[in-house]
Amino acid sequence: MRPRMILTLTSRKGGCGKTLLTMLIASALAEQGRRTALVDADPNGSVQRWVTDIRHGAPIVSYAEADADRLAELLPDLAEQHAVVVVDTAGFGNRAATVAAAAADLVLVPVAPGEADVIEASRMIASVAGLARSTRRLIPALVVINRVRRNTTLARHIVAEIDRLQLPRLATTLSEAVAYGEMSFSGALPAGGTPAEEVAGLLDELRQHGIAFHQDMKT
After folding, report:
1. How far apart are the C-alpha atoms of 60 and 32, rounded to whole Å?
2. Are 122 and 22 a contacting pair, CB within 8 Å?
3. Containing structural domain, residue 167
């Protein structure tokens, strides 16, 4: 049986880029022919609105579910039916975010440039480690550096701080590119240049960390 994967994006700090990364990853997987489900566990419903009202392209099965109890029932069912389930969570601590992290096969913690984001990432990585111990299962968690201006002192400082705190992270970073903002209005993935390279690098690293990307859309 092919493995099914749940990928959760979480942070208790708003504005770090969870929604952007959710859109990028789910859309890129679908466009590559992967059977993908998306769950919007944020009460704001931004991702669900984007999928249903704005995005065009390869199909993504999407659900808006911010209730923790119903989410706990939904995620295992979706994982049986799809190669990858991508879950967006609220920018504050709640039971739904905890459920989504506890169910995950991989947790991504976005970090935008700023001291508060780095501190929250450290806390979230520790929180996921605690969940892993309490559930007696492996839940890898990785930081994703987001909205950085390449080759700047600030970008280098963010990387240095994350490494100083010994937080596991992806090597791929996302730049502060106009194409990402445009995606929220057009529904289209970046078609070229640095953003497209970043998305490709992000997916490649997710493969290396065990996210199963299957091409069969029929099973």
Report:
1. 12
2. no
3. 5-206
Longest dimension (CA), the chain: 48
Reported pTM: 0.92
Flag whether 25 is in a domain: yes
CATH number of the domain within which 179 lies: 3.40.50.300
CA distance 40 to 60: 12
Are the beta carbons of 144 and 110 closer than 8 angstroms? yes
Give residue-wise pLDDT tens across range 16-47.
999 999 999 999 999 988 899 999 999 999 99
Helix spans in the chain (H): 18-31, 46-49, 68-81, 95-103, 115-135, 153-164, 178-186, 193-208
The CA distance from 41 to 34, in Å, is 22
Is 218 part of any domain?
no
Q: Encoding tokens for residue 16? A: 């770090």
